[in-house]
Amino acid sequence: MRTKVYHIVSIAVTVGFVAVALLCFPNALGRLVESFRDLGLSVALYFASLFGFPDAVHATVTEFPDYSFLSLFGSGKAPDVAISATFDGFAAQWVSYWQTFISLDNVAAYFTSFPTVLNVILIVFVFTLPAILLLFLLFRRMVLVYKCGQEKSNNLYY
């Protein structure tokens, strides 16, 4: 009975998280459906080629996403695809990306924020290390006491 309750609670929590995700990010539904479709087509392509039908299934790896099914859910607008469809457009975007990513302002901002991030990491480490050490020692003691009870021995430090 208790495990049935745990299963029901875990299913309810999972459904709740999925509902919150879909309400907060409605365009993610299209990507989720596309990913399941692509997974199914990949499995079908694998088995088709395994059984000697290599042209029976068309792989969608090289195609842009098609969100035409979103109109079924009341949203006809598909998310914009950030990658250009032509190689020349992609090459221009590639150069623009790296010029933006490795710029003097970006590098200066990184080295300016690095000490503050390192400070936060070290503070978290200093506060969590004693707790982790305490948990380790308590767990070790619990294991030794359990072994002692199993062997009917009073020596806890062997």
Q: Specify Rg, calculated over alpha carbons.
A: 27 Å
SS-based class? mainly alpha
Largest sheet: none
User: How much helix, percentage-wise, in residues?
Assistant: 55-70%
Which runs of at least 5 residues are low in confidence (pLDDT < 50)?
none
> What gross morphology would you assign?
extended
Tally of DSSP β-strands: 0
Compressed to H and E, one letter per element, the order equals HHHH
Architecture overview:
This protein is mostly helical. It has a domain of 80 residues. It is 69% helix and 0% strand. The radius of gyration is 27 Å and the shape is extended.
Write a short abstract of this structure:
With 158 residues, the protein is mainly alpha-helical.
What key phrases describe this protein's structure?
single chain; 158 residues; mainly alpha
Show the helix and strand layout:
Layout: H1 2-24, H2 28-50, H3 87-101, H4 104-151
